[in-house]
């Protein structure tokens, strides 16, 4: 039997959910106490181990970075094979290549996966890992996800046709781009179900959390989550911080990252990389007009407002779920403190961070909010200066990075989506529509399948209950 005495276990940010191993955490998603799972201890890599990543393939780096989190749940050689298979779906051999915009200003292109968004990097891996776990256990699962645009398409692409899984994706009706919607709704796999909620992404996310907190229904349907509340998503996204930093001279020098941020998962992966030993100078939170994270870092008060519709719909979020993970760390891993703050949010609609908690965050994080006018101007300016066309989300990152950049500081902005996913915004800024990759063209003309449902918990759960197969006999 493998020795598991030194393996990482996972604890909830709210302190009362069961402590689990990796595979159980992956299948569980949201902790049963409503919290989010994090490693009980952070693995550390020596500088020599980080330097040794130079020149390795992306799958090789991914295996080394994620192996401590996975432990003996998956043999390392098998895990490497899964990683190789997952990233073989990408159109660029580097998986996450760097493009230079200016001296010490770089873009990390994360849109070379099947749905042209950064969500593919984690989702292609997660689908294979979950399918493996469920098949080994001889059970089915009902995946329910909420999307502000890109997560849904990436999840559907990754999980479509998998026999052990039924997948339901909630998106805000008429609040995602036409391309984003069609990437979800044109999939004809029988295990895929699209639900258009008459509301915002925050409404979709609230419905999702309510389902996971309904423990009887959760168990009966074998609910599993693929949103960034799922630790495996964060784990997989940590990898490209290492590959880009090493390509730019790390660990011999510190690198800063600017991340277009909605639900705080992608930038929390950068925090994880820093806790693992990667020299990270700063993590810059780049938000659109839905600026709750920028306001929180400035004032210490977390107070959601009404969602503003923008040209960057994946960031039209006022409740950033993964921020709870950072609060847990900033509060010294005090689960009672996290519960107090989350209860205040639920009852009073806001909470205030203590000075020490805010100071801990500010030691590594900065934040900038970018207006719609600045988004359009940035897309136009970058195209004019370099010929590089970026989507609105990436433009927010570039604009924020340029505001805070220091002359001698390498700054990597995460390019989170291909511009062809947002043709109207790009055309408004540049006067021309971005070229559509062939894999996207094939999807845009197909017939759509989705159901519009009111923002009503009973209506949504009734729809899922009537179609889920997890309550049937286990898969053979």
What does this structure look like?
The protein is an alpha/beta fold and 476 residues long. It has a domain at 98-115 and 233-430: Rossmann fold. It is 44% helix and 15% strand. Strands 3-4-14-9-10-13 form a 6-stranded mixed sheet, with helices on both faces. Strands 8-5-6-7-15 form a 5-stranded parallel sheet, with helices on both faces. α3 packs across α11 (239-247) and α6 (150-159) packs parallel to α7. The model is unreliable at 472-476 (pLDDT under 50).
For this entry, what is the oligomeric state of its chains? single chain
**Overall body shape:** globular
pLDDT averaged over residues: 94
Overall CATH class of the domain at 98-115 and 233-430: Alpha Beta
- Side by side, the strands of the main sheet go 3-4-14-9-10-13
Number of helices: 21
Let me know the number of strands.
15
Helix content: 40-55%
End-to-end separation: 26 Å
**Poorly predicted spans:** 472-476
* Biggest sheet statistics: 6 strands, mixed
CATH topology of the domain at 98-115 and 233-430: Rossmann fold
* CATH architecture term of the domain at 98-115 and 233-430: 3-Layer(aba) Sandwich
Strand residues, percent:
5-15%
The gyration radius over C-alpha positions equals 21 Å
């Amino acid at each position: 039997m493998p020795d598991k005495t030194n393996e990482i276990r996972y604890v909830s940010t709210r302190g009362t959910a069961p402590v689990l191993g990796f595979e159980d955490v992956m299948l569980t998603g949201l902790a049963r106490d409503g919290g989010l799972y994090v490693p009980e201890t952070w693995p550390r890599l020596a500088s020599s181990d980080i330097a040794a990543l130079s020149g390795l393939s992306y799958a090789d780096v991914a295996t080394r970075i994620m192996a401590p989190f996975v432990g003996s749940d998956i043999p390392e050689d098998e895990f490497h094979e899964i990683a190789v298979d997952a990233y073989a779906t990408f159109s660029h051999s580097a998986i996450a290549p760097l493009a230079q915009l200016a001296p010490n200003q770089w873009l990390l292109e994360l849109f070379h996966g099947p749905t042209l968004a950064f969500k593919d990097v984690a989702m292609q891996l997660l689908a294979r890992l979950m399918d493996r776990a469920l098949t080994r256990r001889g059970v089915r699962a009902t995946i329910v996800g909420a999307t502000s645009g890109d997560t849904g398409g990436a999840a559907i692409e990754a999980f479509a046709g998998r026999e052990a899984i039924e997948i339901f994706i909630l998106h805000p009706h008429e609040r995602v781009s036409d391309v984003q919607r069609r990437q979800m709704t044109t999939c004809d796999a029988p295990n895929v179900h699209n639900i258009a909620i008459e509301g915002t992404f925050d409404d979709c996310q609230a419905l999702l959390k309510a389902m996971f907190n309904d423990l009887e229904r959760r168990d009966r349907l074998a609910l599993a989550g693929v949103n960034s509340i799922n630790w495996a998503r964060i784990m997989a996204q940590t990898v490209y911080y290492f590959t880009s930093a090493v390509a730019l001279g790390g660990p011999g020098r510190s690198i800063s990252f600017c991340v277009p941020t909605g639900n705080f998962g992608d930038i929390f992966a950068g925090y994880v990389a820093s806790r693992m030993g990667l020299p990270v100078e700063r993590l810059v939170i780049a938000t659109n007009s839905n600026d709750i994270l920028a306001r929180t870092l400035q004032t210490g008060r977390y107070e959601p407002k009404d969602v503003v519709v923008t040209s960057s719909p994946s960031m039209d979020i006022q409740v950033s779920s993964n921020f709870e993970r950072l609060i847990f760390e900033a509060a010294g891993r005090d689960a009672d403190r996290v519960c107090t703050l989350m209860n205040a949010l639920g009852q009073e609609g806001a909470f205030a961070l203590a000075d020490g908690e805010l100071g801990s965050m500010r030691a590594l994080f900065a934040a900038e909010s970018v207006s719609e006018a600045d988004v359009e101007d940035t897309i136009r300016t970058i195209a004019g200066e370099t010929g590089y066309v970026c989507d609105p989300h990436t433009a927010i990152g570039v604009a924020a990075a340029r505001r805070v950049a220091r002359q001698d500081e390498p700054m990597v902005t995460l390019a989170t989506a291909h511009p062809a996913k947002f043709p109207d915004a790009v055309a408004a800024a540049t006067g021309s529509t971005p070229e559509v990759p062939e894999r996207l063209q094939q999807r845009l003309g197909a017939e759509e399948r989705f159901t519009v449902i009111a923002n009503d918990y009973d209506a949504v759960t009734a729809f899922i209950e009537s179609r889920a197969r997890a309550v049937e006999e286990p898969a053979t």
